[in-house]
Amino acid sequence: MRLLRLAWRNVFRQKRRTLTTLGAVVIGLAGLVVFQGYLGQLMKGFRESTILSGIGHLQVSSDAKYFTDGEFTPYAYGLADEAALTAKLAADPRVTAVFPSTGFTAIGGLGEKATTLLVKAYPSARMRFGAVTAGDGAFNLGALTSGSWDPSGGPDRLVLGETAARILKAKVGDTVTLMAVLPGGGLNGRDFTVAAVYRSAGRDKIFAFTDYATARDFSGLKAAPVLHVIARSLGDTDALASSIGAGHAVKTWPQLATYFVQVNSMFSGFLGVIRVILLLITLFILANTMNRIVFERMREWGTLRALGTKASGILVLVVLEGAIQGFVGAILGIAAGFAVSLVLNLAGGLPFPSAGTVLQIKVVPDDQAVWWNLVPVVLTAALAAFLPALRAMRLSPSEALRCP
Amino acid sequence: MPLIRVRDGRKHYTLDKALTTALDGVSLDIDAGERVALMGPSGSGKSTLLNLMGCLDRLDGGSLEIDGQDTKALRDVALSRFRNRTMGFIFQSFNLIPVLSVHENIEYPLLLQEVSASERRDRVEALLEQVGLAGFGRRSPENLSGGQRQRVAIARALVTRPRIVFADEPTAALDQKTGRAVMELMVQMNEKAGATLVFSTHDATVAGYARRVVKLLDGKLAEDGGAA
């Protein structure tokens, strides 16, 4: 307590130097907190949209091989207990929606034009082409550029991707013939009406959508190969996955959304690199400050030693002074980061260009911005003070007292 | 048995890669309650001897016993504790801690002894009274004159009721009048509190306050006698 009080007062002894040292830490940390808050929101939005773009929080199939081989050849993976499992999951208060999906490959033809399509099918009411939330219990499959999707519309409707529609020269209301291979090897063909055309970068050349009932009837599917579960809260995912009994293969969204996981890892890596750079700058600045402090106060260390302070007490005193500087700098930096975030949000957020438009992303630093910055900065500051502290500790009192 | 016993004390320093002898076979006994001045020109070894007797440094050769305790056998923690409980120090430049108030400066050695708060307060206030600084406790040392600072340093040296007080050139940074007042206070402290007083000086007038003057020259004991 005695040393802590002394260290605290020493920090504010040379206000100008302390302000300069803290200024660098505060500016760096404030920037990091804002960047972290921006990136966090960006990735949160990306995560939500990824989960609700056709994945769900978890998927249940009869066999793990479905997830590698079965999405568009689903016949071998039918869930024998589809109805019971659906009822069980739907009754769980943590679940917003449970529904099946299937898919098949087909050749789509219109007039003289033809293209290969991967047709994905969900229950009609679960298909949306616009923003959704987990509470809607539906997937957002893209943005419609023409036509519309009426959940209560009839069978044999097709939503084509913009690129596929251009290849087929198809427009809303046209009839596209789909030819697909059935489980027995036979070929089936059916006319589908183009209900709408959607746009989704990288997907709209190959992916088309129809409703689940039509797909099941068209492909002769006996049972759903997979169930999608949309949870009320992201945090319930693992618990829900564990609640599904043996005999099922379950994958959670991080296992399914590999692209999101890769992008998230990449940005987390960026953030980590920036944090390491900031910590190194903190280390360098504080080590330099502490070196000067130790050098300038040699006679004071000698006096404290003469009065009976142990050598280790001097070490603790100097390290504490460094750690306090780190603590004060981190607290001010984090607070400044939160304040800047507030100002940016009041101004509408930060811009993020996406798919030809500019989104305004709010900057929302969370509690991680506090702990992931406060603790490393305090530890780094203590480390920065450690070597100068060792020097102060190793001098004999008489040597220290002789210093000018 | 003497309170301080130095036998064949030797100390060397390396200065610019050259070995310099600061103390060359000094033997000296100081009894409890004595008032001893160490005199000699600059570089004669008086500060070195004072630092060695104050356990602020270690001998390279010879032995030092304080109150029967062989100081060579004490490691840092024990030596720090020994210093805190047995000795008080007064420095030429006062060496008060600027971030502590006058009261806190005097109180500091008692905190190391874990003396209760009420006893610390009583002892500090009594000493402030004795050194003529009653009511100055909350002031910062930076707002005191040189003489006042040295009186705070004297109070700090006495607060643990040490057996020995070492003072290195205690009046060198003071004008003559203030220096005289400080020395009178130290004499009073030696007579009333019974603490052995050992101080270094190159000033014959200051040395006149001692009952015994030990003269050093080139690291050797040149003379050990009565008052200058």
Describe the structure.
The complex is a heterodimer of chains A (404) and B (228). Chain A has 13 helices and 14 strands. Chain A has 404 residues and is of the alpha+beta class. In chain A, strands 1, 2, 3, 6, 7, 8, 9, 10, 11 and 12 form a ten-stranded mixed β-sheet that branches. In chain A, a hairpin with a 5-residue loop joins strand 8 and strand 9 (187-199). In chain A, helix 1 (2-11) packs across helix 11 (311-346), helix 9 runs parallel beside helix 12 and helix 11 (311-346) packs antiparallel against helix 12. The model of chain A has no long low-confidence stretch (mean pLDDT 91). With 228 residues, chain B is α/β, with parallel strands linked by helices. Chain B has one domain (34-59, 85-224): 3-Layer(aba) Sandwich (Rossmann fold), CATH 3.40.50. Helices cover 34% and strands 29% of the residues of chain B. Chain B has seven helices and ten strands. In chain B, the strands form two sheets. A six-stranded mixed β-sheet of chain B has the order 6-7-8-3-9-10, with helices on both faces. In chain B, strand 9 (212-217) and strand 10 form a beta hairpin. The longest helix of chain B has 17 residues, at 176-192. Chain A binds chain B through residues 2, 6, 9-10, 13, 299-300, 302-313, 396-399, 401, and chain B through 48, 51, 54, 56-58, 76-77, 80-81, 83-85, 89, 91, 93, 95, 97-100, 108-109, 111-113, 156.
